[in-house]
Write a structure and sequence with these properties.
The structure holds 2 protein chains of 2 kinds.
Chain A lengths: L1 H12 L6 H7 L2 H28 L16 H8 L1 H32 L6 H9 L6 H12 L5 H7 L16 H26 L3 H9 L4 H12 L1 H16 L3 H6 L11 H11 L3 H27 L7
Chain B lengths: L1 H14 L8 E6 L4 H18 L2 E6 L3 H14 L6 E5 L5 H5 L15 H4 L10 E2 L2 E2 L1 E7 L3 E5 H7 L7 H6 L1 H6 L3 E3 L10 H10 L1 H9 L3 H5 L1 H15 L10 H10 L2 E5 L4 H7 L8 E5 L7 E9 L9 H14 L2 H11 L15 H10 L3 E3 L1 H4 L2 H16 L5 H13 L3
Parallel strand pairs in B: 1-2, 1-3, 8-9, 11-12
Antiparallel strand pairs in B: 3-11, 4-5, 6-11, 7-9, 7-10
Classes of the chains: A mainly alpha, B alpha/beta.
């Protein structure tokens, strides 16, 4: 970042000087040519498609994007739909729980593994393994485990523990926690590896100094190590957060939105209405709302992080 | 992939000597259950035997909700297949309007299709501005109540002959530890309200709601009966007892662990593959044993417009397939296995089993337009969402259900 920022600032300062155009287009020409495909991709795919999405969310397009402009009709219908409202609420609940638990458990696991234990790489592999599976596989596996008649509950009841009960997946009030179990199983290993990298990045001298000062280990972690890991934490939050917003495949494989509509998520609503419902306008309105949510969270954070005096950690 | 196949076929055609080469025709469909797969294989056999071309079978999982989007996006995305199955109805309306589907008028011109289609309303969704864009190949109806003979033997009661008797038997079934109503997770529930609507509400109600989109009919007393029945039904269904697919419900019925199920006639294909004999292992009650008309939809074949430069032999293969699908021979073989009703009755159906014979009897009274048939997929998705929610959430009362259903019908297009 710093490397690219410096020449740009220099360019702004030299607005009146001759040769600006030349400098803008021909300075370090190979680098600019090399960046062109990515610039084009960003403009066409990200910016272009986003504008397209937002535009067609204001039309009454059905199967094909050909509809007439209808203002906020699609949005009015969207927020009058209980399935959408349940979806949003589910995402908020699942997202916050999943972020907190993944970070905390991931960090604790990383700390445990960082205690110079034996077979460290074996443990690391075991913990990271679930991340190598797709969400579809994860969802199916946990669907079988948690299925009340075929899975854990059924097995233990057949073994004689007749009042054992674990029917979260079939219980509208608990199904989000069932999803959380599967999500955590899948994601904590990855978070742990990120955190471990962060922990390894903390200089041994820091630890020695803390030990000399007689600071207890837990205190060193909380007051010194965690603040030093800010970069890793932010990376982890961004990766986990984007995983939460686009949550789709896990739900489809695990519960398919059920029981009833109690585990529906926004991405599934978008997909259903765009494709099987044949109502692109409605699907795009929902997609636009998802984008808006992300922006509401990201913009203030990005402003704090990259704005101001350009202070970077 | 398809393009490669076409290019490969063209290359062989160009390089080859004088004789015409067999071409590959990719056919997409979502007939993946045991009975359905056996049925589509009958079409493939006839097609390959009569034309010498190759039927490239692209079965897609996920039925109407999973496979239909794939099919539609392939056609829109410029990667059309040679032919595809879709439900008869309004799913392909916009594809036809956009000129992505072939007009078959000339292909079947000499077959005089008007004379043998059992109900002209079947062809309605296929017609657009004087052209004919699809060929219905069977009639499917959701309106079947399937009952397990074994389950009723266990409780020592006669097998019910209509919906009311069936509901009355639920307490005895539950006492004996038998599931009164077997149900698979996901889409199978979506068809049930429509069945109750035609069976309990009657033909007029179905026409008023599905065809005329009359919200007042939804608020009327006839529809209330339907909602109340649905309310009773959800009391004996719990997510814990649901099975993964509708074929498993068939197994439950044959085993006698579940007493009944409302499901479309395609369940029968699976019951037969599993060795069930109608009248002995299971009973079937069309229109819940109450009505005298079936709501019908079914499946149609569409032939997408192939990209320019396609080998004419492939287009010829499309024509051949179109004619074969509605030919008496293929119709008979296919429908006997599928358990659906053929679109033409000028063929010898004495080989059909007792359930199909019952259906053929009702067919004479004409078909009612089912929801699949008359409502847009957007409206179907909304009613499906509502039904799913109602099933699982007891806090939604019958009145709420009726009001929300009415508002969906009000905004239906």
């Amino acid at each position: 970042m710093a490397d690219t920022a410096a020449p740009m600032e220099a360019g702004i300062e030299t607005v009146d000087r001759p040769g600006l155009l030349q400098r803008l287009f021909f300075h370090n020409l190979p680098a600019k040519i090399a960046a062109l495909p990515m610039v084009a991709t960003v403009l066409v795919v990200f910016v272009g498609c986003t504008i397209w999405t937002v535009y067609y969310s204001f039309t009454n397009s059905k199967l094909l994007p050909t509809g007439k402009f209808v203002g906020f009709d699609q949005y009015e219908r969207l927020f009058a739909t209980s399935r959408w409202n349940v979806s949003v609420w589910n995402l908020v609940l699942y997202g916050s729980m999943s972020l907190v638990f993944t970070l905390v458990i991931g960090f604790l696991l990383a700390v445990l593994i960082d205690q110079k234990i034996r077979f460290e790489s074996a443990f690391r592999t075991i913990m990271l393994y679930p991340f190598a599976l797709s969400f579809i596989v994860t969802g199916l596996v946990w669907q079988w485990i948690m299925n009340p008649t075929l899975g854990l509950q059924g097995t233990l009841r057949n073994l004689g523990w007749t009042n054992f009960s674990f029917d979260w997946i079939a219980n509208p009030r608990m199904v989000l926690f069932a999803m959380l179990i599967a999500g955590l199983w899948h994601g904590t290993g990855f978070c742990m590896v990120l955190m471990l990298a962060g922990l390894r990045g903390v200089d041994d001298e820091v630890w020695k100094a803390a030990r000399v000062d007689g600071i207890p280990t837990w205190r060193t972690y909380i007051s010194i190590v965690i603040p030093m890991m800010r970069g890793v934490l932010i990376t982890a939050i961004v990766i986990l957060g984007s995983g939460v917003v686009r949550l789709y495949d896990l739900v489809v494989a695990l519960t398919n939105g059920g029981p009833g509509i109690s585990s529906e998520v926004p991405a599934k609503y978008v997909f259903n209405y765009m494709f099987s419902g044949g109502n692109i306008g409605q699907g795009l309105a929902a997609a636009t709302m998802m984008l808006l949510t992300v922006l509401i969270i990201m913009v203030p954070w990005a402003y704090l992080e990259f704005g101001g005096k350009g202070k970077r950690t | 992939m398809k393009k490669f196949a076409v290019v490969a076929a063209m290359a062989t055609a160009l390089l080859g000597s004088t004789s015409a080469f067999a071409v590959d025709l990719e056919v997409t469909h979502w007939w993946t259950s045991a009975g359905e797969a056996a049925a589509i294989a009958e079409f493939a056999k006839v097609f390959e035997a009569e034309t010498g071309n190759t039927w490239v079978d692209s079965a897609l999982a996920g039925s109407g909700t999973g496979a239909n989007p794939v099919i539609i996006s392939r056609i829109i995305g410029g990667d059309p297949m040679g032919a595809t199955q879709m439900n008869t109805g309004r799913d392909a309306e916009e594809l036809i309007q956009a000129g992505l589907i072939r007009d078959l008028t000339d292909v079947v011109a000499d077959m005089d299709i008007d004379s043998f289609y059992v109900d002209q309303s079947l062809l309605e969704p296929c017609r657009y501005e004087g052209g004919l864009y699809c060929l219905p190949i069977n009639i499917h109806s959701w309106d079947w109540l399937w009952l397990s003979t074994k389950a009723y033997e266990k409780i020592g009661q006669p097998v019910p002959t209509n919906w009311d008797e069936y509901v009355a038997s639920w307490p005895a079934l539950e006492e004996a530890g038998i599931l009164p109503f077997g149900l698979a997770t996901g889409w199978p529930f979506s068809g049930i309200p429509g069945v109750l609507m035609s069976g309990l509400g009657g033909s007029d109600l179905v026409l008023a709601i599905n065809r005329d989109k009359d919200a007042e009919a939804v608020r009327g007393p006839e529809f209330r009966k339907v909602a109340v029945a649905l309310d009773e039904l959800r009391k004996v269904i719990s997510p814990e007892t649901m099975v993964p697919s509708f074929g498993d419900v068939g197994t439950q019925l044959l085993e006698g662990t579940a007493a009944g199920n409302i499901h479309g006639d395609w369940l029968q294909g699976d019951l037969q593959v599993a060795g069930g004999v109608p009248g002995k292992d299971y009973e079937c009650l069309p229109a819940l044993g109450l009505g005298d008309q079936l709501t019908g939809g079914g499946d149609s074949f569409y032939f997408p417009v192939l990209p320019e430069g396609t080998d004419p032999a492939v287009i010829e293969a499309q024509n051949q397939l179109a004619r074969i699908l509605i030919s008496p021979e293929a119709q008979l073989k296919f429908n006997l296995v599928k358990g659906s009703m053929p679109i033409r009755t000028d063929i010898d159906l004495s080989a059909a089993n007792p359930c199909m014979q019952k259906a053929l009897g009702l067919l004479k009274n004409g078909l009612l337009p089912s929801g699949d048939f008359a409502l847009s997929s957007d409206t179907q998705q909304q009613t499906q969402d509502l039904n799913t929610e109602f099933l699982a959430d007891d806090s939604i009362t019958v009145d709420d259900y009726i009001e929300r259903y009415a508002s969906i019908i009000e905004s239906a297009d």
